[in-house]
Amino acid sequence: MEKIIIKGGQPLRGKVAVEGSKNAVLPLQAAAILAVQGTVTLNNVPPVTDVKVMDRLLGFLNLKTAYGEKQRQLVLNASFPLSSEAPYDYVNQMRASLLVMGPLLARTGHVRIALPGGCSIGARPIDLHLAGLEKLGAEIKQDAGFIEASCEHLVGTRIPLDFPSVGATENIMMAATMAAGITTIENASCEPEIIELGNLLNKMGAHVHGAGSKVIRIQGVYYLHGAEYTVIPDRIEAGTWMLASAVTNGDVIVQGTVPEHNASLIAKLEEMGVTIIKQADGLRVLGTSVLIPANVKTMPYPGFPTDLQPQMTVLQLLANGTSTMEEHVFEKRFIHLEELRRMNAKFQISGSVAILDGPTRFSGAEVTASDLRAGASLVLAGLAADGITQIRNPQCLDRGYYHFYQKLRALGAKIDRLNIEDKFKITPDQQPRQNKGQEKE
Ligand code: EPU
């Protein structure tokens, strides 16, 4: 069994470089489906598992792709006849597989995709994706765990979203690029990743206006072609490093980040007494031994990102008094707190609000990562803790962070990732032990 092992108490110091944005790259990979001619070349693509899962799915759909890990460059060619079925294996591994729905529908007039199952951060329905595609003229059927959407041709229309869903905005944008006439997405998601998608689509020949604002207008075109695009730095990875410096009372320079993309985090860190200095070589984050409590609410961009909520709660738990965290994007994203309880955290959860009682003296313990960001929060707590922390299921960190523990080690953390034999694992050939005289059931 693989585990991350941390000996806490070491302030982080030095420089760390941020990779390209995972959540920007995934829709850009899907957008490549729309290029009937030429190749789509993406630069600054991080070698994380989610990008590889999307790559395999695109290969299954008959795109030809080539990734140079050293150059961080991904080249995609969709100028072949495409398959339009995304099996359960892919969607089950990664919900972002759903992003192939919009572009496949636009390109082939048909898509059959497995319905995603449960998710560790809460119910994640896809009603907004489907309603949007239906409004564009798709006929949607659900059967045997699959969603099937088909259309003769898509026609632009007005699509008001009940909630500014990132994925629904992206799927509708991609489907609308080749719809007849104008599509207007209202209450659209404003995340920087949406601007990235709009930029790439426009380079491919689409007419997308207003990406990054509440209203996006798309004038349909006949076809899209290849293009080259360089992806923005990952604001969630950057935020994770900033929080890692703060929780260890460290001094870390986060390189290659866009400060405006982390404005809500920077404001909260400063409110809590952390010093942030914008330097030529990056954002310098200086911790403090006297952290001030703060109340935080997650919100769609430009609000505080839900993907930094678990990591932020670690800092709040270290603060000198009571802080609150309100989770307004996902309904069940406090699972990490139950693990942190094993490390001495004191808190109460009431609906979508966690009341966090600091200051916590985290103590090392054995804990389990339930998802990518929960895993990051456990690592941060381990760095701040007294003693040894062991984190199970470290593979989930590979989904969105490249060389996470190696980068931490370069900053001075005492951290390793080991394959440890599981003494308590029960293998299928092991019979239950029986006491003498006991009957088999
Ligand atoms: N929602 C609906 N109906 C829908 C779609 C979404 O009710 O049809 C709800 C969801 O249940 C959730 C909320 O809307 O409560 C937000 O979901 P959204 O669609 O915005 O999220 P997503 O597109 O599935 C992306 C990121 C997530 C990030 C969220 C929120 C990607 C690939 N994923 O997911 O990233 O948490 O936006 O910012 O872009 C991560 O990187 O760890 C991660 C989970």
Q: Mean pLDDT, rounded to whole units?
A: 94
**Alpha-carbon Rg, integer:** 23 Å
Number of helices: 14
Q: Which geometry do the CA atoms define?
A: globular
Class by alpha and beta content: alpha/beta
Search tags:
alpha/beta; globular; four-stranded mixed β-sheet; 26% strand; binds uridine-diphosphate-2(N-acetylglucosaminyl) butyric acid; 441 residues; 14 helices
Give a structural overview.
- The chain has 441 residues and is an alpha/beta fold.
- Mean pLDDT is 94; it is low at 434-441.
- The strands form six sheets. The protein has a four-stranded mixed beta sheet, with helices on one face.
- Helix content is 30%, strand content 26%.
- Uridine-diphosphate-2(N-acetylglucosaminyl) butyric acid is lined by residues 23, 26, 95-96, 123-129, 163, 165-168, 306-307, 329-330, 372-373, 400.
Brief synopsis:
The protein contains 14 helices and 24 strands. It has helices spanning 22-31, 49-60, 88-93, 101-108, 127-135, 166-176, 192-203, 235-247, 263-271, 309-318, 335-341, 372-384, 395-398, 404-410; strands at residues 2-7, 13-17, 35-43, 64-68, 73-77, 85-86, 110-114, 139-143, 146-150, 158-160, 182-186, 207-209, 216-219, 224-230, 251-255, 275-279, 282-286, 295-297, 322-326, 346-350, 353-357, 366-368, 388-392, 414-419.
